[in-house]
Amino acid sequence: MTTDTIEAPRSARPASRSSNLEKWGWIYMRASGVVLVVLVFGHLFINLLAAEGGIKAIDFAFVAGKWASPFWQVYDTLLLWLALIHGSNGMRTIVNDYVSKPLVRRVLLGALLVSAVVLLTLGTLVIYTFDPCPAGAPADLLPSICS
């Protein structure tokens, strides 16, 4: 009776920092996905069903009224950050799985990182610096909600 040995699989590398990063990325995708489902359906319910007038009520004044409340600023910021990081992490996984050339992979991952940071920064700035009635603006350019 002979005993054959089975070769170790390729993935049986010693645990490294990158494998730990992959584990946390996997956990983040699951946790953010659950939170995003709640936030997205809450967003849809509030904006489409609970708002008086339904979808026709969503206009500049509706958004300006929502963003006047710190609650909705935080809610929309959380939705923006979770969705954008969730999507970027998914794209990172796709790039790592399907791009075999190291230089191309690095360029794509760098572009993904830059675009995510720019969009997060701009989106957050819009939410927190939004002013529907800026001082000194011509009256004919202001919305009807401004007096």
From TrEMBL:
Broad class of the protein's primary localization: membrane
Gene Ontology CC terms: membrane
CDD domains to which the protein is assigned, alphabetical: SQR_TypeA_SdhD_like
Keywords: Electron transport, Heme, Iron, Membrane, Metal-binding, Transmembrane, Transmembrane helix, Transport, Tricarboxylic acid cycle
Annotated GO biological process: tricarboxylic acid cycle
Protein purpose: Membrane-anchoring subunit of succinate dehydrogenase (SDH).
The protein's name in its UniProt record: Succinate dehydrogenase hydrophobic membrane anchor subunit
